[in-house]
Structures are given as C-alpha cells and as structure tokens.
Design a protein that fits this description.
This protein has 16 helices and 26 strands. It is α/β, with parallel strands linked by helices. The longest helix has 19 residues.
Length: 493
C-alpha cells in the first residue's frame, strides 16, 4: 500500500508507476483503492463506474479496468453531500456526517464490500498495488476508515509512506504520520518515499539519514519533481497547475471552470495540441478572448447553470456565440446549452427547473438512473471518418424540442444517436473522450483553417499515453530502490 502524509503527495502517480514497473518486470499487477473521492471517473468495459485514477493505473498495468479496483466512489455534489457509487452503481446521495459517523446505509456493510472486492482482485493478480487516501494520521476518523490502515491490515499489506517535500515540513509530516499509528499499524510501515524533490539530490543526503534515524524506517527513494511527464489527473487539485489565462495564441480554447467540473481529462489531448492554447477560467473577460468555449461535464448541472448566470458567464458565452465563436458542450455542459433542464424527481436538489442557455433546441430531464458505458461511434457529419471511441457517464435524458430536426453529433455503433449539432460552431454531446479523437478535434478546428495548419502533426493519444507510462516508470525506477522494495514485498513469503 502506498499511503500518504496528506492529500496530493503523489500516491496515485507513484502507484501508476509501480503498476507499469511490475508489468515490465514480468508480474501481473492490478491497482486497488477501497474508497475514492473524486469527480473524475471512468466507465468500465461492462458499463459501470470507477475513479479515473484506478482506470489510469489499470491501463498502466495493461488491464481493462474493473469496479473491484475501486469498489466505493464518492462524487461530491456540494460541501456536505456526495453521490455514493458502490461497485460501479449509484446507491444515492449521502450527507458527509452521516456517511462518516453513522454509515451511509444501515443495511450495507461497506467494510465487508470493499474487503470482498480486494479479495476477488487478489485471487487473480499479484502484486496488488494499493493506494490509501489523504493522510493516514487522521486519528479522529480511524474507527470509520475504510481505505488506509484498516484496509492494509485486511490485505496483510506492507505500507510505503509517501511524503511531498515540495510543500515543506517533510520531517514533521513523516515522523508524525508514523508516530500517530497504533503499534500494530506502525509495524506495517516498511519504507518511506520522499516525492517532488527540487534541486540537487545530494543536498538531502543528510536529511535522508536523519529521517531514517528518527523514524526507524528506511527511505526507499527520493523522487525528483518532473514537469514533462503527463499522467491523467484524478481530481480538481491538478487543475491548479493548468493554464488559467489566454496568451494571445493563434487559437484560444477556454474551458469554463465550473464549481463541480468533472472529467476534465476530456481536454488532456487538446491541451497537448500545439495548434491551440487551452486554459481553464471562471472569468467572463477571459471567455471573451476565446475562439472556442467548452462547457465541460459537471456533477451538479442545475447548480452550475445557476452559477453561470450569477457570475454573468452565461452572458459572455451567448455574446461569443453571436460573434461567431465556437461553443461546445460535453455531458452536463451539453445539458446546459439546451432550452431547459428539469429535475422533477429532485435528483440533484430542490430546484425543479431552470432555463438553459438556449443554444441548442433540446430539453433535459434528470432521472435517478445513471448511464455509464463505453462507446464506439462515427461522426454524423463525417460518417466515413471511421470508428472513434468515448464513454458516457450521465444522469438525465435529453431530447429535441418542438419542430427541431434530427441533427446528432455522433452515430453510435449500437444504433443510438448522440448529441445535437446546430452548426460547426455550436454543438453538444454526452460523449466523454470525444476530444481524444483527432478526427473530432480537426472537425472542431476546421472553421479556423485560415489561422492554423490542420495537417500539422499531433500525437496519437493512446500511443502518447503508453509512452508517458514508460517514461514515468523509468523516472521512478531510477530513483527508487527497487531491490529493497522487492525484498520488502517477499519478506513474508
């Protein structure tokens, strides 16, 4: 288990690296995180939902993802409530206090559910690369913890503690995290990884020795901070490191940074496309500088639609559309672009109806049933363009209104139609991952062919991701004592 001194110390990325390293070394690894809290999720091949981080780790391990890799997913809807997804299916919304203090549901033993998922996974794969959540020293939550040391005890796992030296206080955070454990759990911590080091590694040689002296645990590696390896992020923390302003580039693409923005990995490939400059913003003035505005997915469509109006971003979007700029909506963003969003069953909250932006002649009705599935499709406007890939994760059904003609964005291989196309500069779709396909990106950029070179080389995204997994594995392998790690993993037979 990779446990952390806190959130965002790099557990997920190091877990991804180890999944690829173990695969390279001839093993059959699989990732596991008992409970994940994130808005970035992914659809499994069998049409269920897990956290994006475990889907990425599965890809690094060379496996199709499965809900046993992340049996419990919490998707925040507000500061106090989350949607609870168990074994890939939503079971309702829960107040945080009720979940942590009372249990999310009296008839569900969540500890048994996550332990059973681990046992199924461990019966088929070895090693299991487990990931903890946040800090392992939140002693006020110890009795209710499903994901850190109690899970390590169930699995009989050796624990490697990961600390982020870049944020400061690394000695106190490592020592304190170990000191606050019970004697049994303290004995499980077999190594320390110092992550995100900047500068000359020799400057930490003495610090490494001192840390080992006071903690009585070996430091297995000091991993330098690296900028030029790109692994898909798990949650909104990673957004803080992305572009947030236009730069006067040839083609500016703005993603509206909604309060409940989800699945921002939709834009990772476009962010790598040198033909455009992509940035995230919640400022109306910065939207005015964009040639293309993207309304992304959201966990709370009605709440974020209201927020758009309160921030006057809706005015900026409509003005951009009138002036001939492109507006694209994905999932919740697609719903917002219609004439109305209705929630008669109060799936998202007390608001039963809000008018949409009116850019698309469609109406959305929320429902308690969540659609989660991987998809293959063709572009309706370019049916000869070949088979493309994406996935759906949404609640609600969207239909055309009035006399609006049929005008889908995509023709799915199962016979369904998806999205609505008003023009090449105004469209919406439920398909996450549609921007991972160069064919669709080129269609989106075609209106600006006088300003960019459409034939310019950009990477194939799947090939690019494989290269990044290998680069990450090389980087971690270089600075982590793998011989010592393997000795730890085999010391108990």
């Amino acid at each position: 288990m990779l446990a952390g001194t806190g959130s965002d110390v790099g557990k997920s990325v190091i877990a991804t690296a180890l999944c690829r390293i173990f695969l390279q070394d001839g093993y059959h690894p699989a990732p596991f995180k008992a409970q994940n809290m994130a808005l970035n999720s992914y659809a499994t091949p069998d049409g269920l939902e897990i956290g994006r981080a475990q889907a990425v780790q599965a890809e690094a391990a060379g496996l199709p993802c499965h809900t046993d890799m992340n049996p419990l997913l919490l998707k925040p809807q507000s500061d106090h409530t989350s949607q609870v997804v168990l074994h890939g299916r939503p079971i309702g919304n829960r107040d945080a206090y009720d979940f942590w203090r009372k249990g999310a549901s009296g008839d569900i033993d969540f500890r048994k559910e996550v332990c059973d998922a681990y046992d199924r996974l461990a019966a088929s794969y070895n090693p299991i690369v487990m990931e903890g959540a946040g800090s392992i020293s939140e002693i006020n939550l110890r009795d209710h913890d499903l994901v850190n040391m109690p899970m390590a005890r169930h699995a009989g796992a050796d624990v490697i503690l990961v600390a982020d030296i870049d944020r400061g206080g690394v000695f106190a955070s490592v020592y304190g995290s170990i000191a606050l454990q019970t004697p049994e759990d303290k004995g499980r911590i077999k190594g320390i990884i110092i992550n995100k080091f900047r500068g000359d590694l020799r400057l930490f040689d003495e610090g490494r020795r001192m840390l080992e002296d006071i903690c009585r645990v070996p430091v297995l590696g000091v991993i330098p901070y690296v900028k030029d390896i790109h692994i898909e992020g798990e949650d909104s923390v990673a957004l803080d490191h992305k572009n947030v302003k236009p730069e006067g580039a040839q083609l500016e693409v703005a993603v509206v940074r909604l309060p409940h923005l989800s699945n921002y990995t939709d834009f990772d490939m476009l962010e790598l496309d040198h033909r455009v400059h992509l940035y995230y913003t919640a400022e109306a003035a910065d939207l005015g500088s964009a040639d293309i505005i993207i309304l992304p997915g959201t966990k709370s469509t009605l709440s974020d639609l209201q927020w758009l109006r309160e921030k006057r971003l809706s005015e900026a979007i409509l003005r951009a559309h009138r002036e001939g700029h492109t507006v694209l909506g994905i999932c919740g963003g697609y719903q917002m672009m219609g004439v109305e969003v209705m929630d008669p069953e109060h799936v998202e909250g007390s608001q039963e109806r809000l008018p949409g932006l009116g850019l698309l002649p469609v109406s959305t009705t929320m429902s308690g049933e969540k659609v989660t599935r991987q998809t293959t499709f063709r572009l309706a406007m370019q049916p000869s363009s070949g088979q493309l890939h994406g996935y759906e994760i949404h609640m609600g059904k969207t239909i055309a209104v009035g006399e609006a003609p049929k005008s889908p964005v995509a023709l799915l291989d199962d016979g369904r139609e998806d999205g609505y196309l008003v023009s090449q500069k105004c469209m919406g779709t439920y398909l996450h991952g549609i921007l991972d396909n160069r064919t669709f990106i080129d269609y989106l950029l075609q209106s600006y062919v006088d300003r960019i070179d459409l034939s310019s080389d950009i990477p194939d995204y799947q090939t690019y991701k494989e290269e990044q997994y290998n680069l990450l594995a090389d980087h971690v392998r270089k600075y982590l004592d793998m011989d010592q790690l393997y000795k730890i993993l085999t010391s108990n037979g």
